[in-house]
Structure formats: C-alpha cells, structure tokens
Write the structure tokens for this entry.
Amino acid sequence: MLRWLTAGESHGPSLISLLDGVPAGIELTSDDLKDALARRRLGHGRGSRQKFEQDVLTIHGGLRHGRTLGSPLAIEVANSEWPKWEKVMSADPVPREDLLIDAGTGDEREIARNRPLSRPRPGHADLSGMLKYGFDEARPVLERASARETAARVVAGRVAAALLEQAAGIRLVSHTLQVGSVRVPEDAELPTPEDLEALDADPLRCFHRGTSEAMVAEVDAAKADGDTLGGVVEVLAYGAPVGLGSHIQWDRRLDGRLAQAIMSIQAMKGVEIGDGFATAGRRGSEAHDEILAADAAEGDTFPRVTNRAGGLEGGITNGQIIRVRGALKPISTVPRALRTVDVSTGEQTTANHQRSDTCAVAPAAVIAEAVVALTLADALLEKTGGDSVAEIRAHLEGTNALQSALTDRRPDSAQ
C-alpha cells in the first residue's frame, strides 16, 4: 500500500511531501524531482508569482545514492519568499504592531500583506472555511487551500511515475484538451510519452498546434478583459497491465479512485474516464469496446476495436490505454473583483484580489498526471505486493503467465 500526505501552507517556510510504502530500488535523483517542479511552473497565462517564487528542494529521508530504501520518503519544497512572510505566517505569536508595518521596502503591497483578509473570494474555500473553523478572516484557510500545495503532490507523483515505469513499464503523459471555449478536435491524434518534450515546449501543453494558437489568443483576450479561464486536461497511461483495481467493493474500483484523485485537485469540478459524458448520449451498440480474438503473434491479450471506456471496465484495467480527464473551473481570484461581503462589517463590497494567474490549465495537466501516477502506483502495489522493484517485476511476470494461458485458449491451440 502506498500512502502519501502533504503538509504546509502556501506562504509558509515550506511544503512537505511524505510517502510511505515506497518499494526499495526505485532509481531516482533530486534532479528528477526538480524537473517535475519546473514542469508545474510552465504555461501561458501564469502570473508573476511563478517568476520570483522559487522551489528549493531537499530530500530528508528514504533515498540513498539514487535509489529508494523502502523506508518513508520525506521531501521538502522550501519557499524562497518566506522572509517576506515570516511574521505574517509565524508559528509563534507575533506582537500586533509588527503586523502594521511593511517588510522593509516601503511598498504598500507589503503593508497589505499583513492585513486581515475579511472579504472572502467567491469560488475559493475562503468563506466556507471561515464558517467551518470559526475564523474571522480568510488567511488561515486560503494558505492551505491554495493550489501551491500541489507542488508537494507533484514531487510525490514523480516518485510514483518512476515506480510505475521501472517496475511495470507504465508511462504517463498529460495534455490540454480545452481552454475556455477552445477545444482540440475530437479526432485529433493522442500524444504518447515520447511527445513529452514537445508538450512541455507548448505554451498550453496542447498537442494540436492550430488549437494551441487559438488557446493562447483566448488566454490573452481574457487577461485583457480582467478575467480568468478554466479548461479540460487529460492524462494517458500507456502499458498498464490487465487487472489493476477491483469490482469487489466500491472503494477498490480503480475508476472511482482515479476520479477522487482528480477531483481532489484545487479548482477541479468535473471528471470523466474515457469518453465519459459523450458515451452517455450514445446507444449501447455505439458505446462499448468490442472484443476481438487474442493475437499471440502481436502479443495482444484480447484487443479492442475502440477504447471508449478509457482502459477501465468494472473498476478494473482491461489492458487498453487509461484515459482520465479533469475539468478545471476558471481561477476564482478574478482581477475585475466579484461581489462579496466584508465579514468584519457586514457590508457589501468586492473580493480581495491578490496576484493570480489568468489561466492555470497547463500546470493542472502536470498535477493531474501526478495524482494519477500516485493512484496507479497504489493499485499496482495492491495487486503485486513486493518490497522492492525486483519483487514487483517477478510478481507481474507470474500474473502475465496466467493471463497468457487464458489467451492461448484459441480454436487452433489444440492442433
């Protein structure tokens, strides 16, 4: 079983990622994790924060000489901007007068940093969190609810991706399907893991060049209007074996676990597996993936005509490409400022506006890729067990032998 937790606040000293159940023998370096963090910062429409706020990575345990030890893996992602926030986010009490002065630059924005946030932003966790926990301002809520927490998940996801590839040959890739009203054509070619470099180079991680250009224009128009955009991202997992997940209980169905993982990402409001919502409008004869006779020469275990189910049937992987999509709402910190109430006075006003992105769909694809990797890695360990990469491989070889025996029950096998 692979377990993971994150800790820390957006403007705190650091974020912490803790993984337990990581098998021994995964080849991994700090540079691999830094590369994952760098991919999370990419994308047209990101705000200025991505330029000046740097991630400083430290591995505190679980890795030695480039290989995991089988012990918990502890990773810290420090915030280079922490000195500016040291008093605002201090763990210990701070004299009130210290919060009424700037941080030494004379910049009005520095003074504003210290003020209570009493005007909750629609679409954020601000108001619901304040009411739930009894806070009179939003700072204690928004600091943890912030999407910066996903930096800790991205490094954890990189560990999971390394496990999937090295132990089972599973490789993931993510891309953008839609930004605002601009969407990739339904018949567009799917990217593969070999296309990672091209995707990372694209301003919106879109694999369809013409659509990417239209997406950039859509983002620029929204920014000019003082508005924000959402979109749809897709994660593809190639090489997943048959049999991950289970139909036995509701919480072991892999499609349900993937859906929960995607929906746990900040700002996600929808999820689908495979063709999802489009399939709901089809007749049964057009909705399902017909099964063909096994082709031993091609090494294919019961190939399919289509993959509308997205590689999952009955909560179990069926050997096809896993396809998971997430729908991201427009960023809630809208520059034109939406109406809200100042909870300190009860008066109608406009929401607080801090630095924000115009569009965060490109990094959302990278984050979705990370949580899918974590979920699949957990399902892999659930099926195979194993304290090391070598042991997982051995278990998979035994499983593959059993499945091959079933595949070989063809009409000509008796000849």
Observations:
- The first helix runs from residue 30 to 40.
- The chain has 14 helices and 15 strands.
- The mean pLDDT is 91.
